Structures are given as structure tokens and as C-alpha cells.
Amino acid sequence: MKAEGIQALAWLLIALPLASAAVLLLGGRRTDRWGHLLGTLAPVLSFVLGLAMFVQMLGYSGAERRRAVHLYEFFSVGGFKVDAGLLLDPLSMTFVLLITGVGSLIHVYSIGYMSHDANRRRFFAYLNLFVAAMLLLVLADNYVGVYFGWEGVGLASYLLIGFWQHKPSAAVAAKKAFVVNRVGDMGLAIAIMLMFATFGTVGFEQVLGTGAHHEGLATQLSTGTATAIGLLLLLGACGKSAQLPLQSWLLDAMEGPTPVSALIHAATMVTAGVYLIVRSAPIFEMSPDAQLVVTIVGAATLLAGAIIGCAKDDIKKALAGSTMSQIGYMVLAAGLGPAGYAIAIAHLVVHGFFKAGMFLGAGSVMHAMNDEVNMRRYGGLAKIMPITFVTFGLGYLAIIGFPGFAGYFTKDLIIEASWAHNPVLGACAILGAAITAFYMSRLMFMTFFGEKRWAEDAHPHESPPVMTWPLVLLAVGSVFGGAFMILGDRFMHFLEPVVGAPEHHHGFDPLAPVGLLTLAVVAAGVALAWAMYGRRPVPVEAPRGGVLTKAARRDLYGDALNESLLMRPGQWLTRLTVFFDNKGVDGLVNGLAAGIGGTSGRVRRVQTGFVRSYALSMFLGAALVVAALLVVRV
Amino acid sequence: MSPTHYLVLSAILFTIGGIGVLVRRNAIVVFMCVELMLNATNLAFVSFARMHGNLDGQIIAFFVMVVAAAEVVVGLAILMTIFRTRRSSSVDDANLLKY
Amino acid sequence: MNPTLLAEAQTHAAEPFVFWLLAIVSVSAALGMILMRKAVHAALLLAVVMLSLAVLYAVLEAPFLAFVQVIVYTGAVLMLFLFVLMLVGVSSTDSLVETIRGQRLWAALAGLGFVGLLAAGVAGAALPTTAGLARANAEGNVVGLARLLFTKYVFAFEVASALLITAALGAMVLAHRERLAPKATQRALSKARFLGDHPTPLPGPGTYARHNAVDMPALLPDGTTSELSVNPIIARRTATAGMHTDLEGRTEEQAAGDDIAAVRAATDTAADADAQDREVKAGVPTAGNKEAGK
């Protein structure tokens, strides 16, 4: 249906941050004084607009909530026609609110966090660019638009990870993130090509349909093609969401400033993969094999991320491992089919709140400790930074699934759904919950409790209000978000027009056996962490650790694997090609030149300069001519 | 005598003159060998004139003689001029085209 | 004598004999010409070739051409060659050592191939029967030639005459020596002579009891020879210092032996077979020295 009223202005949501980014980038140093203010104003305006559109959407019901905004024809090549248009339905609206809401809070936080940085204006420009691209990604009404936004957030991520250009480690990390993302992008691109080859179109309405009554072309897919497209889309999602096997870039991406880690690598960009999978649900429905692979990837990643997070002493890297693990939960849920789509998105939303809140809290701690990231140099910060401690703690409780907090509702639903689907997956999810509890508790104990293990020049203090207010608002979401969405199946019904309803649905049961088991393992994890880090003093130098610790410290050898499987063969291949180019191609060309030069050097000796030699050759030629004449005549 | 004998003699004399041009280094001797070649062709023309029964061959031989005379005059003058400056009459001296 | 009758008589009777004789002579002379070391010898052998060719022209019923060959070619052109040889330097002998590698071999091969091809071509050619020039020479060879020359080939005739004029002019231009300094007047020459080292005329060659020749140097009052009395061109070829051997108390045999030694030293004795063949007659030394007259 066509969008009316304020929803028809949906393009403004993207245009405002984009225009702000353009002004700040093109304006240059002239805009330094007020650049951050403009940069914060843009997403706030987008949030206000988005809220208005959301309210308008609530006024509709059922299939009417799906509204299309047609902008213009993007390109029409042969039989391939792609329009630039936006789609406003419950799924995209959820994301719009999440992106603009959490994004605005992080922008406000950045005003304070980046206040000492001379390039703050450029930072806000890039952040706005990111917000615009992410909104395009979730609002586009065809896969090409999604790809546009996909590439845009990749670019913004690269620019922001490597924001401190003078640091070689940052530049390397940015490059790594971009390259690994590229592998995933290739998967998405080929999926789009395959879709075009199969369907002749890539618009959501045509391919995916508009809900239960108007099915799209996806339902006519053969299983083989559906599996192919599904796996390729999964590859793209893995790249963006840092799932196995394309997970190596996420921990290195912590080189960027903390607001970047919070916004991009916790709340929004890394969730784009989950969005893609949920949006392409009709395609995945046609291929049980692809769905199985999705769940396996999700389960493996959630365990891997959790194990990695256990051994990291860098607070941001521990939180990055946690992000990887939580997105694994979302991907696992998304792979379960209609039973899991809504839960995945719900967990995505609350994760956005508490993970962003924890990242910003970590930033606050780093800000207080002179940008120290090693948790072994923290300790005893709870009393000195109360607001940070409380908001961080609320987020912590949310992530471990403490009853009543946001994560409790969403994560338990995922565990239950996966257990119902397949006990192995359920076991993985429960184990993941235990490990999550362990390492998050470890983080809390090492940072806020225990003895002070500070460096000499550390004078920790609470952060200014511009930084603490976003923490507070995000903590509110961490606390109440889950209950709000899950109780009464509010969110499920909200998303029903998009993802359909699960087959057996029985509301949230706090006393389900699986849920109680989960609580038990969570408690065990917390207790173990307290025993290791809460009761005993934390050594300032990291101890050697066993095999598993060593492996976890090295990201479960993810980088080593990539290097030996891909990088070194690639280097050998390039070296081989260079060798062939030098010896073979150049050798051929140079050899030809040398050969001609040598031959001519020898042949020129025929030119003796003596007239008699020339006369001899003339005579010989004359003899040949006579011979030729005789042969012809005779 | 059939013309063949005269023609073969002419060919032999021509070849001897040709070899002389190639082998001798003294410019004047080379010139003389060229004159020998011209004479050989004159002989061929005259024998053909007898064969055909008209005097065209003799006319041509006559003109060859005229041209040879003119050529000798100019050639020797050039030789003299070169000899004045270089003090040598060897043909091998003109080797500026050497690689 | 009527040239036509002469030509006819020779055509029928002795033509093969004449032909073969002259063929052998001319080929030998040509071979000798290219193999001779001294340029003058080569020129004289060329003269032999040209003369034998003239006789062959006469045999071939071309009497006018035969005489023109003798008068113009042998008489004028070849003499011109000899003059230039004299001017250039008749004593300069060519070394017969070949400087270009393989030149002789390839020249011989090319020559043999060429002559073989030509001979094969000529021998294999189907030539019509000889018509003879009896009809063409009916009014005489000269008249016949004139008829052709001034009607059919008149344009070539005119061009040839232009060519001759051009050649003459060209030779004049080339041989001309530009005067770089103004021509010395009589007065300037006198001045130079008196300002030079000997204002008096140079002594002339001597006239003595045994010797009287242009190359005999005069004796100075102290008994030494005067190099100035002999023309420098001649002096270059003879050892004027050792001319008056009898004045230095040697016998005639000794003088003759000295002369021979001098001659040998002046020419390459190793390759010069002539010098070895020469007999030493008493008082008659060789190689352009004196004792010409008594």
C-alpha cells in the first residue's frame, strides 16, 4: 500500500543524516565549532520523524501497516529494472527506532567522549554517514537498495574503525574489517544476481510477497536454488554480523573509538545480517538445509564468542566477544523458522540497549582511567563511578538473563525454541548462557570490585552528564525493554504481518523446565566467576593459563586459521604470479628485445662500409635475378 | 660463327670485369674493369646486330661508347680531386658507412 | 679498300680462326688485367683487350665501330686512364693481400655462377639464323649507320651530345683549383726569390764524361752531389746521393753492383720476379737509372 501522511516523507529519515554528513565533510574546519551539534541534531530529528511514523503505523492494523514509498526509478537495464523505494513495515520500523534512538543517545555521548579530539567534527560526519546508510539498509524495498546500504555501512565502519589514522593498528584493523566484509558482500551480491536470474526481479514485494495472503515468487523456488540463495545470503550475513567463519574482524574493530564500538559493532551494523535473514524468511522457508546451516552457524558462533570473551583482559574485546556470542543467539533463532524470527528481532532490540549501554559504560571507565583498556589495571571503581557502575550493572544483569531484566525474556525464549527444535542446539544455547554468565561476571568483578590495581597516574572520576545521561536512558531500556516486548506477546503480534506466526505458540512461561535449567547454569557461572575473580585478588600480570585459555586468548586460532588457509596461499599465489610476470612475461618481452638487439648487433656487421662488399652483394643479386629469369623462361 | 660464341665470349669478359671490380682496390683499376664490362656488352650488341640483320645494335654500341667516354672523363676528374686531398686512391677508404 | 668486301671476305673464310685466336687473347688479357699488381700493366692489358675487340667488330661486319673503338676507346679513353695514372702515382703498387674476409671466394663464386647462368641461358636460347649485314651495309656501313642515327635515334644523338658537353664542363669544374691567394705577379715572384734562401737559379743536372742525363746530379765544389740540381720528381725515384760512384773510387762492376742493390731495395724483391730475371750486364744496370747514353 502507498504511504500517506508523514510516512510519505520516509526519505527524510535518510536524507537528514546524509545531508548533515555532507555539510560537515565538505564544510571542513569552518564547521568545527558547531559540527558536533549539527551531527547530533540530524539523528535526533530522524528519531522524532521515525517516532511519528511509528505512531501513525500503530493507527493502522494488519496488512495495512505495510506501506511503500516510491522515490524514483534507479536503473532499467535490459530486463532488469530496479526502483529506488522505501518500505515501511513493522520490521523496518523497529529497526528505524532502534537505529535512530540508540544512535541519537550515542551521538550525545560522543559530544563528551570526543571533546578532546581535534577531529570531532569528522567523527560526527562519519557517524551521520553511517546512520544514513544503515537506515537505507533497513528501509529499502529491494535487495539492491539493501546492498547499497550494506556497502555504505561497510564504508562507514572502515572510516570509523580507522578514525585515528595515525595509529597503524587502527589502520590495519579497518582494512581487515573491510576485507573480511567484502567476502560477505560477495555472497550477497551473488545472491542478488541469482535472484535476478531466477525471478527476473529483486524487489521485496515481488520476491518475498506481502504477507500470508500474497505470496511472492520465492514460494516457487526449487529447493536447490533456494538453498543456494539462502547460503549466499548467510555468507553475507556472516560477514556483516561477524559470525563464523568471517568473525575475525570484530575483535580488531575495537581499535575504533568506543562510541563507534557501541553503535556499529554492538547495536546496529552487526545486526544487519540478522535483519537480512529475517527479511528473506520466505526464501529460507523453501530450504530446510539452508536453515539448518544457519542454526549451526549461530550455535557455533555463540559458543566461540563466549569462549573468546572468557580470556580477554581488554574490556572492549571481552564485550566484542560477547557481541559475537549474542548475535550467534539471534542467528540461531532466525534459523529456526517462523518459531524464531520474532524472538531473534526482540533479542536484537534489547541487545542493542544493553550492549550499547555496556560499551558506553566501558568508554566511561576508559575515559576515567586515561584510556586504559586492560581490566587487570582496573579494580574498585564501583564507588568512584557510581552512575557508570549502576548502569553497567543493569546491563550486566540483562545480558546474563537475570529474571525480570530484558535478556531474561528474550534469551530464554531463544533457548526454549532451539531446545524444541533440536536438543543439541538447545544444549549449546544453555552452555552458551553459562559461559556468558561466567565471563560477564568476571568482567564486572575485575572492573568494579576488588582491590585497586590502577596505574600511578590514574585519577578516576565520574563522567560528565553529557556522557552519563545516555547511560541512564539505555539502562532503562535494558531493564524494561524485554518485559515490555515479550509479555503478552506484544512484539510477536507486532511482527506478525511480516514474519508470520509460529506454529505452536504458548506465551512466555517462567517456570518452563528449560528456563529453570538455564537459571541454574547461569548461577553456576556467576559463582565460578566469583570464586576465581571476586574472592581472590586478581593478578596484575596475566597468568600463563592452560590450553583452552591460550586458545581463547588467540581468538580460538581464528586469525591463525585465516592466515594459513587463505593469506599464505594467497601470498604464495601472488609471489608465483609476480615470478611468472617477471620471468615469463617480462622475460618474453625483454628476451624478445634482447634477441632482436643481439641479432641486429650481429647482422649489422654485414655493413662493413667497404664499397666492394656492397658491389659483391649487388653482383650476387644480379646473378640471382638472371637465375630467376632463366627459371621462369625455361 | 653463330652468335652464341660471341655471346659467350661477351659473358666471360663481362664476368671477368665484374670480378675485377670486386677484387681490386686501386680506384683506377676498378674503373678500367668497368670499361671492360662495357666493352663486353658492346660486343654482345654488335653480334646481335649481325644476327638480326639491322644496324640498331651497332647504334647502341656507338652510344655506349659515347657514354663511356663521358663517364671516364668525369670519373677520372673526381678521382683526381679525391686524390689531391686524400693522397690515396684506394677504394676501401670510403668506409664511413661502416657499423 | 671497300670495307664491305673486306668484311664479307673475313666472314666466310677465316672467321672461326680469327674468333678463337682473339677470344683466347682477350680472355687472357682480361684475366691478366685483374691480376696485375701494377696499374700501368693493367691499363696496357686493357688496351690489348680493346684492340682485339676492335678486330672482332671488324669481323662482325661493323668496320666503322671497329675504327671508332681503336680511335676513341683505345686511343682517347685509355690514354686518359694512363695520364691519370701518371698523375696519381704510377709507383704505388697495390698490395694483393685481400683485406675483406671472403671477398675473393665469394667474388669467384659469384662470377662463376654468373657466367655459368649466362652461358646456359645463351646456349639454350633458340636464336634465329644469322641474317648478316649485307643488306644493311649495302650503301656502306657508315651510310647505314648515319641513316639510322639521324632519323630513328636523332633524339638520343642530341641527348648524347648534351651529355658530352656536360661531361666536359664537369671535368673542368672538378679539376679546377680555386685560387686561394691572388696570382703572384712577376714583381712578387722576384721579391720572394730574393728574400728566399737562394736568389740565384738552381744548378742544372750535370754533364760529365760518363754520364749525361737529367737524373745526374751536379757536383758541388767540395765533391758532394747537389740534390737541388735534379728535378724533385725524378729525385724521389732515384738515390741521387749515390749517383757518382766512379768519383768515389769504385770499379764499374762495383758501381753496377751498387746500382743493382739500390734497385732491389727500391722495389719489393720478394715478389718482383722481374728484378730477379734481369741479368746483370756489365755497365748496364736496370730500373730507370742512368747509363742510358755514352
* Radius of gyration of chain B, CA atoms, in whole angstroms: 17 Å
What's the total helix number of chain A? 24
- Biggest chain pair interface: B-C, 68 and 85 residues
In CATH, the architecture of chain B is Orthogonal Bundle
Protein name (chain A): NADH-quinone oxidoreductase subunit L
Pfam families (chain A): Proton_antipo_M (PF00361), Proton_antipo_N (PF00662)
Keywords (chain A): Membrane, Transmembrane, Transmembrane helix
Transmembrane segments (chain A): 37-59, 94-111, 123-140, 146-165, 186-204, 216-239, 260-278, 290-311, 318-336, 342-363, 384-404, 424-445, 466-487, 511-533, 614-632
What does this structure look like?
- The complex is a heterotrimer of chains A (634), B (99) and C (294).
- Chain A is built from 24 helices and two strands.
- Chain A is mainly alpha-helical and 634 residues long.
- In chain A, helix 2 packs antiparallel against helix 3 and helix 3 packs antiparallel against helix 4.
- Chain A starts with 9 loop residues before the first helix and ends with a helix.
- In chain A, 53% of the residues are buried.
- With 99 residues, chain B is mostly helical.
- Chain B has one domain: Helix Hairpins, CATH 1.10.287.3510.
- Helices cover 57% and strands 1% of the residues of chain C.
- In chain C, helix 3 packs antiparallel against helix 4.
- The chains are: A mainly alpha (634), B mainly alpha (99), C mainly alpha (294).
- Chain A: Its main location: membrane.
TL;DR?
Chain A: The chain crosses the membrane at residues 37-59, 94-111, 123-140, 146-165, 186-204, 216-239, 260-278, 290-311, 318-336, 342-363, 384-404, 424-445, 466-487, 511-533, 614-632. The complex is a heterotrimer of chains A (634), B (99) and C (294). Chain A is built from 24 helices and two strands.
